[in-house]
Amino acid sequence: MSHYPAEPYKIKAVEPIAMTTREQRQEYMKKAGYNTFLLNSAEVYIDLLTDSGTTAMSDKQWAGLMIGDEAYAGSRNFHHLQEVIREYYGFKHVVPTHQGRGAENLLSMIMIKDGDYVPGNMYFTTTRAHQERNGATFVDIIIDEAHDSQIEIPFKGNIDLNKLQKLIDEVGADKIPYICLAVTVNLAGGQPVSMQNMREVKALCSQHGIKVMFDATRCVENAYFIKEREAEYKDKTIAEILKEMMSYADGCTMSGKKDCLVNIGGFLCLNDDDLYQQACELVVLFEGMPSYGGLAGRDMEAMAIGIKESVDFHYIEHRIAQCRYLADKLTAAGVPIVKPVGGHAVFLDARAFLPHVSQEEFPAQALAAELYIESGVRSMERGIVSAGRDKITGENHKPKLELVRLTIPRRVYTYAHLDHVADGIIKLYQKRDQIKGLNMVYEPKLLRFFTSRFEPK
């Protein structure tokens, strides 16, 4: 029998949540165009849309808000954040941003030239959008197993070194400004990357003068999996593993709204002095001064404290256990999910859940909508809608994985909440033949999954 550790915290404040009827939810979903992003939070019972910015902050973080230094330049909270990042991540320079995509924007602008190629271990929506906007072509070099939801291997987020070498041989190293290495890989199901793979990627890139940039958004979750699955790290602390991970990168983008345990904020880290200077010049244009970058001093203080709290073993053990608890309940009922379960979410395999709905009928989008109507649980699509269109042909990208993401916020819900989630999904699975596909009736040009609207077929 699996062991699920109890919450390593106690509840100090509560927020009432919506209790709605099925009839109300049907109307809310219709009004939202069958897009869960367009629901109002007041209409949602359990919100698993994202773990981005939905963290419950600690008492120490709330106390930190009260010592915010809101100076326009040189805030003491920036210096504290810089000190903590250097201690735990080891990078030389840090540029705060309002959130992770602000860091992605800066990195893409200072490093990419028109006609470049940026390889990575599976695309992420905003990351690829910034890369393409600046003239690059994204190339997926993740191992093949990552595109199969049922293969169970310990490090499904690893980069295929042969694919990377093949790209270098085909386009030349001078056309590859950096490799984008995500730890963990969101769209593969929150899958981790091994320390050995990071080490090998860094060595290969160094031979060709290519920089390695981490998408470090969920790096603490990745560190936990390394401790659990790579024998040589079982006696290392999360902080020690995290520091070594970062030593194999030349910089990183970070959405602090995930593993830094805050509701807003991010940063770009760099070791290269010239790149740092360029980033400082651009951050003034797009975000703010290099010492605040779109954040209040109080937010930087909360992030510094959150980084320290994030490496506590009991915290991250419980976080991973919540994902496994939900996954185990679904698996026991025969519900198809991505295996092995990752660190921040459980992903329903919409192709296997709804085999009668073609990919062009948006099965994951339809499943997410029906889950809300059934249970009041908000999830999100990660399939053909999120993948968007080819920038040259205009055709839909058709990813092999057609998923619904059930993203568990940090320190927010209990196991009892997850019981309700599982019950709703299992009920839906038992009547899955009744679920129909959708037509898209409105599509924006960029990042369409946020605001597209649909109607039932």
From TrEMBL:
User: Which reactions are catalysed by this chain?
Assistant: L-tyrosine + H2O = phenol + pyruvate + NH4(+)
DNA repair as a keyword of this entry, yes or no, is no
Location of the Aromatic amino acid beta-eliminating lyase/threonine aldolase domain: 47-423
Per the UniProt entry, what species is this protein from, by scientific name? Alysiella filiformis DSM 16848
State how it assembles: Homotetramer.
State the family it belongs to. Belongs to the beta-eliminating lyase family.
Pfam (any one): Beta_elim_lyase
**Cross-referenced PROSITE patterns, in alphabetical order?**
BETA_ELIM_LYASE
For the modification N6-(pyridoxal phosphate)lysine, the affected residues are: 258
Q: Which GO terms describe its molecular function?
A: tyrosine phenol-lyase activity
Q: Do you know which InterPro entries this protein is assigned to?
A: ArAA_b-elim_lyase/Thr_aldolase (IPR001597), Beta-eliminating_lyase (IPR011166), PyrdxlP-dep_Trfase (IPR015424), PyrdxlP-dep_Trfase_major (IPR015421), PyrdxlP-dep_Trfase_small (IPR015422), Tryptophanase_CS (IPR018176), Tyr_phenol_ly (IPR013441)
Organism superkingdom: Bacteria
Name the coenzymes or cofactors required.
Answer: pyridoxal 5'-phosphate
Write down the EC number.
4.1.99.2
Quote the protein name from its UniProt record: Tyrosine phenol-lyase
